Amino acid sequence: MRVFLETERLLLRQFTGADVDDLFALYDDPEVMRYLNGGEPADRAEIENRDLPAFLDYYERFPGYGFWAAIEKSGGVFLGWFHFRPLRGHHTDDPELGYRLNRSSWGKGYATEGSLALLEKGFTEFGATRIWAATMAVNRGSRRVMEKIGMRHVRTFHEHFDDPIPGTEEGEVEYAITLDEWRARPRP
Predict the structure, then answer these.
(1) What is the mean pLDDT of each run of 10 residues along the chain (188 residues)?
(2) HEC states along the chain?
């Protein structure tokens, strides 16, 4: 197991081929996927043949960036994943932060804990100058996590989707934090 990051309660480790079933269970939960695809059922073959190989490819193409399986330290339970990656058109010093956690882990502070650790690693080890995240405007839970970690609302924007899901009409939101803002934040 290749651990990327450890927090008080979490291990973020590289994915392996053995994670297909956990990813399928995560993606097959309609509430987890509500703001991503409207809660449509998952396709296990797509996860196994497209999603997981893409996760594994990140480790080779962008050392230090990618998708990380979130494991609860106390029980070894798969909670979901975090990603920390440069998107096409963005520099490696402007990575995107994201997370997808199973419903049983909601409301326990895992998204905040993992995200704060990734901000720290990005700013102190990877030379990030700005870290950003995006979600649907109606996804209040995810927006709250972004605010709790010190990100500020940058913009609301609208994208075209061939098959829009409920809430699309409200748009997408981008949040971000710069290195200077991170350095100036209040410390607990």
Answers:
(1) 93 96 97 93 96 91 89 96 87 92 96 97 95 97 96 95 90 97 85
(2) CCEEEECCCEEEEECCHHHHHHHHHHHCCCCCCHHHHCCCCCCHHHHHHHHHHHHHHHHHHCCCCEEEEEEECCCCCEEEEEEEECCCCCCCCCCEEEEEECHHHCCCCHHHHHHHHHHHHHHHHCCCCEEEEEEECCCHHHHHHHHHCCCEEEEEECCCCCCCCCCHHHCEEEEEEEHHHHHHCCCC
CB-based contact 47:37 (threshold 8 Å): no
Dump pLDDT digits (tens) for 60-92: 888 788 999 999 999 999 999 999 998 877 778
Provide the terminal-to-terminal Cα distance of the chain, rounded to the nearest Å.
31
* Residues in the chain, overall count: 188
